[in-house]
């Protein structure tokens, strides 16, 4: 007797992917852990208590239905999945009624690998099947799991690459067995002074390992999404690269490693400013190379930085902050279609400051 | 100090690969070893001596110029590369003047793997670099290396999959260092009674392993071609599958494992009759699914069976036999564009008989 996905489950997984990365649509990554949310709140002097987190997530989820024109899915943190708005409506139902797919972060953070130069793997596999099953009942249709790799002279090591690829494949396999689409996130941090060429080299090795592991674990590729870094120079690299250079390096790396059966790439923003994240995504969608998967966004900071600034924790700022969010979402929606122009930013306060946080942990 | 392909070397390899498979063109696999061509000659009562091999290969190479519209490359056996026609002209120069790429079989046949159920790897790596350099100087732009796997209850084993993938990657790496485009051939034999589904499963595992090995060995994918089996049921399987079923199984397997950066899939015919091989290729190219690489032919038996029958070793039959080859090549070119129809066969002497040879060795 074999453990297999039924045709029905496969069809559902494919459909969820199609809805998330429908043309012009991407993901709002609103799954900051409590600790990480604290760092965001620090910058606007808002106290990191549950009530404030609830108010903030309510701001995002209760945007008007035009949100669904740009946002195909939202990734939530566990706490948020069970929070309610001021009227007692589940925040997740605010998404459901807009037709936005609900996702859930399921990993339990990074742990160090013995014998490495501070490299990590990610934990969270224990009882993951049971947790997924419950999340599915509670309305989640996709999940996210983040692995982290870092570029230096001696990293990522073969162990780090292999171990993270393997744990991502285990996570993906368990999700699918519970009718949940796994977003596979092998983030290579932008920390360092390496060139774009070096980043591309590493990205290709990491992604090749990821897809080999997914194959080894019999993961149904058509029912997965990929959340990689774009290929860029390191944060302290002296050379500055154009969006076209980022696009070429990124799309080349993906074309060399990501099978076309996989339906969509939803890039992480990794500390890029809001406008850089949009410009780069747009360049990626304009490049004259065959791109057999959707190329979209799964942005956290690059969708929320200006929103947080506009909100400042004050109820009277909510409407304006929501407008800021919808505008940023719209810009990225256009970028998915290769139709963004930086001149469109002129009217609004698009945040040009880098959102880089060294050695970012969520 | 590191060993790298320069941009110029990469460009040359990518251009050669693209040229071979452009606009529906495919490959004539005329690289039968002396032993194997003997089996072909047996079927038409021709003695297996060098003179007859020379006459036969002259027939193939000196076809009318129009052959270049259908054939982008020809794979030769070592002997043929240095043979001349009756007037003293090198056979390879016929190809050169038609703008057809000259390829060379470089492997030295299969050897058994200890501890396996008669599984094999392929030898030929010793001095391969020097041999490739010489072949390049003698006008070859691509090479072929065939690995063989077999489906049974216990095969292919992990060892067979890993070892063959690794040796293919070593061969590919050496070729590229010498300006030669490697055709990577991981043939899974059609012997057996397994279903189409089983063949698809195995093909996915084998091809995934190949691309991981190619990545590990830093092979430049844009400068390679893939020569896989189509996904079909075993020869003794009682279920008969339609060309559309073969097409979907084949395309699904490749979409799940072959990165879009790889420019062309040149299928082996593996014992299919001439018309089956053409019909299947057409169905593959007519399928309503995104295909990021060229999908064409690298046929031996399926291009030559009727040619041999028409020739029968007689000089007086050469012109007629060449017409048969031109017709077969044209039919396959149309199939590679999804434009073939069985009504186009007309009175052409296409061979409907299976060309299966059990446990085929070249």
Q: What would you say this structure looks like, in words?
A:
The complex is a heterodimer of chains A (362) and B (362). By secondary structure, chain A is of the alpha/beta class. Chain A is built from 12 helices and 10 strands. In chain A, the strands form 2 sheets. Chain A has an 8-stranded parallel beta barrel with strand order 1-2-3-6-7-8-9-10, surrounded by 7 helices. In chain A, strands 4-5 form a two-stranded antiparallel ribbon. In chain A, α10 links the parallel β9 and β10. Chain A is globular, with a radius of gyration of 19 Å. The mean pLDDT of chain A is 96. By secondary structure, chain B is an alpha/beta fold. Chain B is 42% helix and 14% strand. Chain B contains 12 helices and 10 strands. In chain B, the strands form 2 sheets. Chain B has an 8-stranded parallel beta sheet with strand order 8-7-6-3-2-1-10-9. In chain B, strands 4-5 form a two-stranded antiparallel sheet. In chain B, α7 links the parallel β6 and β7. In chain B, α7 packs across α8, α10 packs parallel to α12 and α11 packs antiparallel against α12. The longest helix of chain B has 21 residues. Chain B is globular, with a radius of gyration of 19 Å. The termini of chain B are far apart. The chains are: A alpha/beta (362), B alpha/beta (362). Chains A and B meet through α8 of A and α8 of B.
Structural class of chain A: alpha/beta
Number of strands of chain B: 10
CA-to-CA gap between the ends of chain A? Answer: 40 Å
**From the alpha-carbon coordinates, what is the Rg of chain A to the nearest angstrom?**
19 Å
Q: Main β-sheet of chain B, in a few words?
A: 8 strands, parallel
Order of strands, widest sheet of chain B: 8-7-6-3-2-1-10-9
Number of helical runs of chain B? 12
Q: What share of the residues of chain B lie within helices?
A: 40-55%
Number of helices of chain A: 12
Strand order of the largest sheet of chain A: 1-2-3-6-7-8-9-10
């Amino acid at each position: 007797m074999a453990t297999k996905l039924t045709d029905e489950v496969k069809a559902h997984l494919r459909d969820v992917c199609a809805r998330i990365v429908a043309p012009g649509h991407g993901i709002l990554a609103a799954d900051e852990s409590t600790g990480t949310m604290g760092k965001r709140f620090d910058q606007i002097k808002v106290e990191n208590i549950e009530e404030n987190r609830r108010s903030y997530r309510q701001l995002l989820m209760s945007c008007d239905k035009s949100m669904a024109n740009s946002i195909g899915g939202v990734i939530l943190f566990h706490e948020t999945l069970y929070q309610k708005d001021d009227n007692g409506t589940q925040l997740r139902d605010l998404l459901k009624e807009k037709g936005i797919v609900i996702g859930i972060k399921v990993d339990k953070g990074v742990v160090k690998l013995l014998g490495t130069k501070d490299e990590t793997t990610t934990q969270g596999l224990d009882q993951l099947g049971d947790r997924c099953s419950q999340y599915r009942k509670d309305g989640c249709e996709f999940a996210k799991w983040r692995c982290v790799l870092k570029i230096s002279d001696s990293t990522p090591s073969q162990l780090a690459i292999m171990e993270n690829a393997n744990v991502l494949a285990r996570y993906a396999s368990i999700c699918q067995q519970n009718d949940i689409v796994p977003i596979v996130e092998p983030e290579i941090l932008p920390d360092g002074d390496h060139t774009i060429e070096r980043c591309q080299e590493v990205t290709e090795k990491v992604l090749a390992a990821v897809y080999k592991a997914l194959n080894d674990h019999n993961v149904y590729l058509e029912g997965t999404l990929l959340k990689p870094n774009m290929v860029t120079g390191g944060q302290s690299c002296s050379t500055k690269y154009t969006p076209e250079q980022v696009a070429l390096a990124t799309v080349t790396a993906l074309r060399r490693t990501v099978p076309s059966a996989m339906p969509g790439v939803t890039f992480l923003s990794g500390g890029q400013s809001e406008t850089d994240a949009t410009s780069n995504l747009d360049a990626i969608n304009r490049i004259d190379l065959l791109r057999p998967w959707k190329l979209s966004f799964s942005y956290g900071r690059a969708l929320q930085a200006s929103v947080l600034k506009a909100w400042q924790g004050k109820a009277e700022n909510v409407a304006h902050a929501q407008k800021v969010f919808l505008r940023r979402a719209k810009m990225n929606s256009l970028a998915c279609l290769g139709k963004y122009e930086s001149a469109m930013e002129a009217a609004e306060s698009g945040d040009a400051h880098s959102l880089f946080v060294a050695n970012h942990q969520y | 100090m590191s060993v790298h392909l320069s941009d110029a070397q990469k460009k040359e390899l990518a251009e050669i690969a693209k040229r071979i498979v452009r606009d529906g063109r495919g490959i004539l696999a005329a690289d039968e070893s002396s032993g194997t061509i003997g089996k072909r000659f047996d079927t038409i009562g021709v003695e297996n001596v060098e003179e007859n091999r020379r006459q036969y290969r002259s027939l193939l190479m000196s076809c009318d110029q129009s052959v270049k519209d259908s054939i982008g490359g020809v794979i030769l056996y070592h002997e043929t590369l240095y043979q001349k026609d009756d007037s003293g002209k090198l056979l390879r120069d016929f190809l050169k003047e038609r703008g057809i790429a000259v390829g060379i079989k470089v492997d030295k046949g299969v050897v058994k793997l200890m501890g396996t159920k008669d599984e094999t790897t392929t030898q030929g790596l010793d001095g391969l670099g020097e041999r490739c350099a010489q072949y390049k100087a003698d006008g070859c732009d691509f090479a072929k290396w065939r690995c063989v796997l077999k489906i049974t209850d216990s095969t292919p084993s992990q060892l067979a999959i890993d070892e063959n993938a690794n040796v293919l990657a070593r061969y590919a790496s050496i070729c590229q260092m010498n300006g030669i485009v490697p055709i990577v051939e991981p043939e899974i034999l059609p012997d057996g009674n397994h279903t189409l589904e089983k063949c698809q499963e195995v093909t996915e595992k084998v091809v995934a392993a190949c691309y991981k090995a190619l990545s590990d060995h830093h092979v430049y994918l844009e400068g390679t071609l893939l020569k896989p089996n189509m996904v079909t049921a075993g020869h003794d399987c009682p279920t008969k599958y339609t060309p559309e079923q073969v097409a979907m199984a084949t395309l699904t397997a490749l979409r799940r494992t072959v990165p879009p950066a790889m420019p062309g899939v040149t299928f082996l015919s593996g014992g299919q009759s001439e018309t089956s091989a053409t019909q299947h290729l057409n169905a593959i190219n007519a399928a309503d699914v995104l295909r990021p690489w060229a999908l064409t032919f690298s046929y031996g038996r399926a291009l030559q069976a009727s040619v041999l029958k028409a020739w029968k070793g007689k000089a007086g039959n050469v012109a007629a036999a060449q017409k048969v080859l031109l017709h077969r090549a044209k039919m396959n070119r149309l199939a590679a564009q999804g434009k073939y129809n069985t009504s186009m066969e007309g009175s052409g002497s296409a061979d409907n008989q299976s060309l299966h040879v059990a446990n085929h060795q070249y």
